[in-house]
């Protein structure tokens, strides 16, 4: 169901074709909610059937047409109602931590490889998310620019602040992952020091 | 595929029936890898077909039998090989952060509710994981006790250290979530202070 709200969220900034919606899930909202194209197109059609979005045909090239989806009042109401409802927290599922619990089955060299890869992956994520925050705060992010154009000036501060806040949360998590991986490398050195020769 | 390795991981501590395996996914490994019963039973049967585990019938009650699954040499080899292979990192998917990016659509009271719920949820997780670490370090955790009995004493330090390390990583993440939610409450106060009267 979260996919539906992610789609509604981006349609509050601008009406989009199915293709453009899928594209947004590669950048933009895709940073916080990943979804493959194969889920997005059918979900848009279901949302149209439920009148949360309205598809309008428009000309595309000399002979073709394409559908552009507009959020409806019912769609906005559904989005606001989700915003007022407590979330259900899913149980934890993280393969890196699950694997780490059984590292005694790996060679020390493999443990080191996993931990270095973990730190490198999340360091890269931090860089990506930091550049997102910069583009949000400077209003250069195309989705932010489109959104700000659509809403009155007195809302702009909140719009920008909450988007940056969401990414700051991801950066905190990624930093915790990097710190954890580094503490694992220290643990490994200590264990190898303790190991009987 | 990760479910398969989570199952192999727990079978390295002791052979288990399907029911006992499913139970382990409620506590123990379930803290790091959640899986519903409906996935565990079919996976065990697939793993038996692939000779990663061996099911042995045993008497159960006056007339019944049940199957106990033993990890095979091929199962151990598959587990070790997974342990030596770099992980693929899945794209991010977190509903709380996705929602937070669009908090301008929520009333300030709802934002406060979400952030407080977020902090409370992860504070509770920290408490649960901390008590797991304690039970691991004291060897009172039943799965740790079973595992230590099965492996030579010189491996015990690593077995215990890596399990505690995995949970420490989860605690770091949960602490980052709590800190983020608290910073959100501060942001909200600041925005409400800025809001036109």
TrEMBL record, chains A, B:
InterPro entries: Tscrpt_reg_PadR_N (IPR005149), WH-like_DNA-bd_sf (IPR036388), WH_DNA-bd_sf (IPR036390)
Domain Transcription regulator PadR N-terminal residues, every copy: 7-80
Annotated coiled-coil segments of the chain: none
SUPFAM superfamilies assigned to the protein according to its UniProt record, in alphabetical order: Winged helix' DNA-binding domain
Pfam families, per the entry: PadR (PF03551)
The protein's name in its UniProt record: PadR family transcriptional regulator
């Amino acid at each position: 169901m979260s996919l539906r709200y992610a789609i509604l969220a981006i349609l509050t900034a601008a009406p989009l074709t199915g293709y453009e919606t899928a594209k947004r899930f590669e950048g933009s909202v895709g940073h916080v909610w990943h979804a493959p194209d194969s889920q997005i197109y059918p979900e848009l059609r279901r949302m149209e059937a439920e009148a949360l979005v309205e598809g309008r045909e428009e000309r595309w090239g000399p002979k073709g047409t394409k559908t552009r989806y507009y959020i409806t009042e019912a769609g906005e109401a559904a989005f606001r109602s989700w915003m007022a409802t407590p979330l259900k927290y899913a149980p934890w599922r993280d393969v890196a931590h699950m694997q780490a619990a059984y590292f005694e089955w790996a060679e020390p060299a493999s443990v080191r490889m996993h931990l270095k890869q973990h730190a490198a992956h999340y360091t890269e994520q931090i860089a990506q998310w930091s550049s997102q925050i910069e583009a949000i705060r400077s209003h250069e992010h195309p989705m932010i620019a489109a959104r700000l154009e659509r809403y009155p000036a007195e809302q702009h501060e909140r719009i920008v602040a909450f988007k940056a806040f969401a990414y700051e949360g991801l950066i905190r998590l990624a930093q915790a992952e990097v710190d954890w991986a580094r503490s694992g490398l220290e643990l490994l050195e200590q264990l190898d020091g303790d190991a009987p020769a």
